[in-house]
Amino acid sequence: MKLSSWPANQQARVVSLGIESGRLRARELGLRPGAIIRVTQRTLFGGTVLDIDGGRLALDRAAAARIHVEPCDGVPMPKAIS
Q: What integer pLDDT is reported at residue 75 of this predicted model?
């Protein structure tokens, strides 16, 4: 399922990125295949805000539509280190 269609406040596991530009930067920020994420917010024009390992990452609509995720029930989200 595309990340752009994933419901808010539901955990997911990233299956594939599908984005070429910014791929290295996305990986540096924790967005990589196998990562456990949660959609925290949808923006007005289709953007998506993600919780990744306690950090936040905002994606535009086009990038969110290229990322594929799957359900990962029972896997707890990591807590942010303060």
A: 57
Q: Which residues have C-beta within 8 Å of that of residue 12, sequence separation ≥ 6?
A: 3, 6, 36, 37, 38, 39, 69, 70, 71, 72
Contact 16, 25 (CB under 8 A): no
**What are phi and psi for residue 6, nearest 5 degrees?**
-70, 135
Average pLDDT over residues 45-57: 91
DSSP string, 15-66: EE----TTHHHHHHTT-STT-EEEEEEE-TTS-EEEEETTEEEEE-HHHHHH
For range 36-55, the mean pLDDT: 91
